[in-house]
Amino acid sequence: MAMKFRKIGVLTSGGDAPGMNAAVRAVARGALSRGVEVMGIYGGYRGMVDDDMIELTSSEVSNKIALGGTMLYTDRCLEFKEESGMQKAIATLKKHEIDGIVAIGGDGTFRGATDLSLRGIPTIGLPGTIDNDITASDNTIGFDTAMQTVLENVDRLRDTCESHARCNIVEVMGRGAGDIALNTAIASGAVDAVIPEVKFNEDACIERILRLRRAGKRSFLIIVSEGVADCSERLAQKITDVTKEISEKENNKALWVEAKFCRLAHVVRGGSPTLADRVLATKMGVRAVEELLAGNSDLVVCEKAGEIVTTGIAYSQALDRMYKGTLKDGMLDKFSEDEIAEMQKTIEEKKKTFAETYKMLCEVAG
Ligand code: F6P
Known about the structure:
The chain has 366 residues and is an alpha/beta fold. It has helices spanning 20-32, 45-49, 83-95, 107-118, 143-164, 179-188, 202-214, 232-249, 275-293, 313-324, 337-364, and strands spanning 7-12, 37-41, 53-55, 100-105, 123-127, 167-172, 192-194, 220-225, 259-263, 299-304, 307-312.
C-alpha cells in the first residue's frame, strides 16, 4: 500500500522558465486540497543542502500564476552533486519531515531527482525549460512563452528591417535544440532558420534572399538557434559582403542587403507565461502530486499527443541521449527490446517532423 504523505517539498532548478510559478502553485494547491502540507524549497537543490525553505500555504501561492521567473528562485548547485551535499539535503528533508519532492526543471534537475529517489526520497520531475529539449514530452513548461516572446521581438525587428530594407539575423536560446528557432522562424515569416537538427545551406539561403530582393522584397529575417555555434554574426557579415559584391558587379544598389545581428539571450526567459504554459504547468503540477501520493517515484510528467502521461526518468534521459547521439556503453542495458524500439520510433518521428517543418519553412519563404 502507498505510504501516507503528510508533507511534500517543491523546488525549481536550472534555468528559470515562465510557468514555473504556475507549476509551483498547482503543486501546492493540489497537495493542500488533498490534506498534504507543502514546503517551497528556495534556490533548487541548494535550498535542501542549506535548509532554506518556506511553508507554502494557499495564500503564499496566491496571485503567482501570471508571474514570470520563479518565486522559489533557482540555482545550479554543485554541492548537491557530491555525496556529502546530498546527505545534508536528505538530513534537511528528514528534519522537516518532508516525505516527497516535486522537482521542476530540465535534465540536470531530473538527475538530482533520481539521486534522491535512489536514496529513498520519492521524487517526481516536471519539465520546466524554455528549450523544449525533453524528448519524452511534446512540450515543456516555458517553451510556448519563450516562442511568443521571440515572436514579439522579431516582429519589432521586422518593422525596422522593412524601413531600412535590411536583413536581421536573430539568435535565440534553446541550448542544443532548434525548436524555438524553427517555430518562431515560421511564425515571423522568416526567410530561413539555422538549427542544429537540419543542415543549413548557406548558398541557397543567400540565393533566395537575392532572388526575393530582385522581385522587390525589402526586409529579411533569419532565426538562428544558439545551438549552432559561431553562426549568427558570421552569417550577417557574409550576407552583407556577398550581396554588396553582386550589387557592385551589376551596378544595382538595390541588390545590397545589409544584414544586422541581434542576440535575444535571456530576454526570452522572462515575462508572464502564456495561457498554454499556465494550463500545461497546472495539469503537470497536479499530476505530479497525484503520482507522489499514489506511491510513485523517479518519474517525469510529460505531455504526449495532448495527454498528460508519465515516464521513468531513466527512460527519458536515455531517450534524450539517444536523440543527441551521446549514449554510452551499457546505458540501454536496463531497457527491454520493446522500449528501445519505442525510443527509436520517437526519435525518428521527431527528426522527420523537424525535416518536414524546415522544408515547409523554405517553401513558404518565397
Ligand atoms: O536551458 C535554458 C537556457 O536558457 C538555454 O536556452 C541557455 O543555453 C542556457 O539556459 C543559459 O544558461 P544561463 O542562464 O546559465 O546563462
